[in-house]
Amino acid sequence: MNAKLTQDQVDLLNKPVLAHIATVNLDGSPQVTPVWVDTDGEAVIFNTAKGRVKHQNIERTHQVAVSVSDPENDYSTVVLKGTATLIDEGADAHIDKMAKKYLGKDSYPFRKSTEQRVIVRVVPDSIVRMG
Question: Rounded to two decimals, what is the model's pTM?
Answer without folding.
Answer: 0.94
